């Protein structure tokens, strides 16, 4: 969970935009034969580049007015920080305007452009369907949105992005609109369908509810993520469980104060132990803090807990993106060429 304060879409700075475009083109040229490595043995570390999921009440919305995809300058910044991955949130309704229908040619072109531009910089892209378990307000598994429609979406996306080195499939962001017991079988069915269709890509299965690491093994309506996903299997061994974690007292990503690092350390130790006991791999798809001294200590504590590469396959910080308002506390989008305080902590762990 997190607040969104996208800046007004009309806020443009011509000179800065031109400089960013020229810098992006230079890096693109220098990248030459760089290639994304989504199947690399090392950890995947990066940033969420938000924007394509903005203004979900405006469907389909107008590109570059209601929502946007990452610019070259945004991709360059992730690379400059030392990242090798971006998580790309987008909306199901925009990429597939009708259930079980063809994917939008225009929207698919924008996603494909981002994947190619990222790959040229050696960045892996996580395709993140950012819908919280719904389609046009109706929940997955309902009569209006059967589970088969969700499988259909992913089979089409898999056909469009078959290169496992360039794209990872993030099935559903924080499926909080349905219960864990409802989400888990849909997730397993989707993994099985993708493998049966020949998909070789890494798959990220988000934990139910808000995917919180802090409540991974806590009973929620008769079950838990720990119980439902302990026996998750994949014939390729390329399905990882996606957790999220914020550092405010309610762990929602909406507060500006942070809990003490020791509490976060215990949360990560518990979920890491669970993964080891059950032979599962984890990926932290979202985490972030404001830039205060206490929150930077919390951010450092979370990053330090993911050093165990036998369990943690990587992480993507929430968030960057050109349309975040200047006062959005967790944004690391640089302003006038100046890094946010969180960037210095992240750089330590990008090495």
UniProtKB/TrEMBL annotation:
Keywords: Glycosidase, Hydrolase. One of its GO terms (molecular function) is hydrolase activity, hydrolyzing O-glycosyl compounds. The keyword Disulfide bond does not apply. One of its GO terms (biological process) is glucan catabolic process. The lineage of its organism: Bacteria, Pseudomonadati, Pseudomonadota, Betaproteobacteria, Burkholderiales. Belongs to the glycosyl hydrolase 5 (cellulase A) family. The keyword 4Fe-4S does not apply. Residues 48-320 form the Glycoside hydrolase family domain. Pfam families: Cellulase (PF00150). This is Cellulase.
């Amino acid at each position: 969970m997190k607040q969104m304060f996208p800046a007004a879409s009309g806020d443009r700075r011509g000179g800065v935009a031109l400089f960013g475009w020229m810098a992006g083109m230079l890096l693109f040229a220098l990248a030459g034969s760089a290639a994304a490595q989504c199947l690399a043995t090392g950890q995947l570390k990066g940033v969420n580049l938000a924007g394509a999921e903005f203004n979900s009440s405006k469907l389909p919305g107008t590109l570059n007015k209601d929502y946007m995809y990452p610019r070259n300058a945004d991709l360059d910044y992730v690379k400059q920080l030392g990242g090798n991955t971006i998580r790309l949130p987008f909306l199901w309704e925009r990429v597939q305007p009708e259930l079980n229908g063809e994917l939008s040619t225009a929207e698919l072109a924008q996603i494909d452009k981002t994947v190619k531009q990222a790959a040229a910089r050696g960045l892996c892209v996580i395709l993140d369907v950012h819908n919280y378990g719904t389609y046009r307000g109706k929940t997955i598994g309902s009569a209006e949105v059967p589970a088969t429609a969700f499988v259909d979406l992913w089979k089409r996306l898999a056909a469009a992005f078959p290169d496992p080195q360039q794209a990872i499939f993030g099935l559903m962001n924080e499926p909080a609109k349905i219960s864990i017991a409802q989400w888990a079988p849909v997730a397993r069915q989707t993994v099985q369908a993708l493998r049966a269709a020949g998909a070789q890509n890494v798959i990220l299965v988000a934990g139910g509810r808000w995917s919180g690491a802090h409540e991974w093994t806590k009973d929620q309506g008769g079950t838990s993520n720990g119980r439902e996903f302990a026996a998750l299997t994949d014939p390729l061994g390329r399905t990882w469980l996606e957790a999220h974690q914020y550092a405010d007292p309610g762990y929602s990503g909406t507060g500006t104060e942070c809990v003490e690092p020791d509490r976060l350390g215990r949360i990560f130790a518990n979920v890491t132990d669970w993964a080891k006991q059950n032979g599962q791999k984890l990926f932290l798809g979202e985490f972030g803090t404001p830039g205060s001294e206490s929150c930077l200590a919390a951010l450092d504590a979370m990053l330090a807990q993911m050093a165990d590469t036998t369990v943690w396959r990587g992480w993507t910080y929430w968030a960057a993106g050109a349309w975040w308002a200047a006062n959005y506390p967790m944004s690391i989008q640089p302003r006038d060429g100046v890094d946010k305080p969180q960037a210095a902590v992240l750089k330590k762990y990008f090495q």
